[in-house]
């Protein structure tokens, strides 16, 4: 079988090509893609890529699963779907607000960046996540099993949801695993656990917090501050901030 030449292949494509598919070509690199101003979809899964070139701004779908990527470039502002599972990623770049689908399972992610407000599907299982960011109300599917999650944010009632094999799951349910959850009960359990965590750390670091905050509090709320108030200042509002 003739070896696939990525340079020759890309040179054979017109500038206005909308889809590039180089799945399973044993590639170790991708050349510059900047001339493809109309590129909408890029498929480069099942290769040996360790990095990606600068991505065209026109891109709306990127699938780079099952490679050796350790990082991703800046993502195009109109990207709607990102599939980067089964790589060696330790972090993700800033996610564009346009993103709807995010699949980043089987990496080495320790945290997730802020999630776009219109995200519908988030698959982040088999990573090293200790917590999740605030989840958008639009989210319908969340798969975050087999991580190191010790807490969860407030959850919507998802169509599909799985957080099995996380410390937080064992705390709430023990060794019982579910395919379906009563979200009212689950959220109450999560809220109770989060309150206990908050109380624990407040008590554990109380002296340290006081030591740090005491000079700031004294300076900001010293009685002499009252002398600097004008007649137009809302005293009730100021006191509420105390």
From TrEMBL:
Entry-linked InterPro entries: Leu-rich_rpt, Leu-rich_rpt_4, LRR-bact_E3_ubiq_ligases, LRR_dom_sf
Stored SUPFAM superfamilies: L domain-like
Keywords tagged on the record: Leucine-rich repeat, Repeat
PANTHER family given in the database record: OLIGODENDROCYTE-MYELIN GLYCOPROTEIN, PTHR47114
Protein name: Leucine-rich repeat protein
Organism (species): viral metagenome
Taxonomic lineage from the root: unclassified sequences, metagenomes, organismal metagenomes
